[in-house]
Design brief:
Blueprint: E1 17-21, H1 26-37, E2 41-46, H2 53-63, E3 68-72, E4 91-94, H3 105-124, E5 131-135, E6 151-152, H4 159-165, H5 176-198, E7 208-214, E8 216-218, H6 234-241, E9 254-258, H7 259-271, E10 279-282, E11 285-287, H8 289-299, E12 318-319, H9 322-329, H10 339-346
Helix pairs in contact: 1-7, 3-5, 4-5
Length: about 350
């Protein structure tokens, strides 16, 4: 294993089976990849097993067929949906979520909460499960605030997004991101409440809960299958079209993190015996779209790329990322992967 446990035993047995929900997604595939690199076996869930076959093929070729399983969970909001998937696993990384960006909170938030609690309750039924990691989001702590001084730490919740998302209809399209934020807030809160309730005697707590809260993910895309359907497709789309897609203009200046660093933090949250009941903030560097364009121009000065957008502003907030940086150091990393490297690696499949 590439992680320095400092002489301690891992929280889950080395080489054991870990469940990764949403394994065909951008972050989910990287969480699986990092687990496999570190010697674990992975069982991944997808909504449609036929559409997720490429994931199994990709990882089986890279790590061996006996290291990877794919199972179908068509509706994560259905009671008992994850009961079979959780059997025999030592840890769970719940990455899957509703990324439809529907502006209707009633179509998104209840299902995301139910999905998170369904995975947790399924995991709690298995004595083998010792760790549960939820992929939350930076937007569960605070929204983007360009040119405003602010501070974020692990104690905060984006209650403003919840109130705005649940405001009465009509539901205009631009409410989609707010609804997504509210779903992350309330699903994570529901999991912490569930974990707290499970700790009450007489039974011992079934597992340790940690969450990872990443900001905008850049970096390597593992398969061409993901270039049209995940957040990893953003920079390749700009590179190929020479334009900033209209839907991305709504994303204000904020912070980014390399997707492999996000995945490494999931592994740390699963294996480190000292990381218990923690929210791990994954914010590497602040950026705006003009910063992205500048990186792309360095890669190909003659390429047609978008002109800088006037008046974008900058994120000037301060973030408590001490825990995340410490955990990355145990992988032998010297801090976060750089912004420039993440942008460059994001284009790996299209250059």
């Amino acid at each position: 294993m590439n992680y320095d446990l400092r002489g301690k035993e891992p929280a889950i047995p080395f080489g054991s089976l870990v469940l990764v929900t949403g394994i065909n997604g951008y972050i989910g595939s990287h969480v699986a990849d990092q687990l496999l690199q570190n010697g674990f076996r992975v069982r991944g869930t997808v909504r449609d097993e036929t559409k997720g076959a490429w994931v199994k093929d990709m990882f089986a070729e890279k790590y061996g067929e006996n290291r990877i399983e794919i199972v179908s969970v068509a509706d994560m909001g259905q009671a008992g949906a994850f009961d079979e998937a959780c059997k025999g696993v030592s840890g769970v990384a719940h990455v899957a979520s509703d990324v439809s960006f529907s502006p209707d909170p009633n179509q998104v938030i209840p299902g995301v909460i139910a999905g998170a609690l369904n995975v947790a309750s399924a995991a709690a039924k298995q004595a083998s499960v010792k760790r549960f990691v939820y992929t939350s989001s930076s937007i569960a702590l605070a929204g983007a605030k360009p040119d405003v001084k602010y501070h974020v730490d692990a104690s905060q919740w984006n209650e403003e997004a919840v109130a705005a998302a649940r405001a009465p209809p009509p539901y205009p399209p631009d409410r989609g991101l707010t609804v997504y934020a509210a779903s992350k807030v309330q699903a994570e809160q529901a999991l912490w409440k569930y974990a707290e309730q499970q700790q009450k005697p007489p039974p011992p707590p079934p597992f340790v809960l940690n969450t990872v809260c990443p900001n905008f993910n850049f970096g390597t895309v593992l398969s061409h299958k993901q270039l049209d359907s995940t957040s990893g497709a953003v920079i390749p789309a700009i590179w190929r079209s020479g334009e900033l897609p209209a839907q991305l203009a709504a994303f204000l200046p904020q912070w980014m993190v390399d997707v492999q660093d996000t995945a490494r933090l999931h592994v740390a949250a699963l294996v480190d015996p000292d990381v218990q009941g923690r929210r791990i903030l994954a914010y590497a560097f602040p950026f705006n779209w003009n910063d992205v364009f500048a990186c792309l121009r360095k890669l190909d000065p003659g390429r047609k790329l978008p002109d800088d957008v006037e008046g974008l502003g900058h994120d000037i907030g301060t973030i408590d990322t001490e825990l995340g940086r410490e955990l990355l150091s145990r992988f032998g990393r010297e801090g976060w992967t750089s912004f420039e490297e993440s942008v460059r690696e994001n284009l790996g499949l299209v250059l």
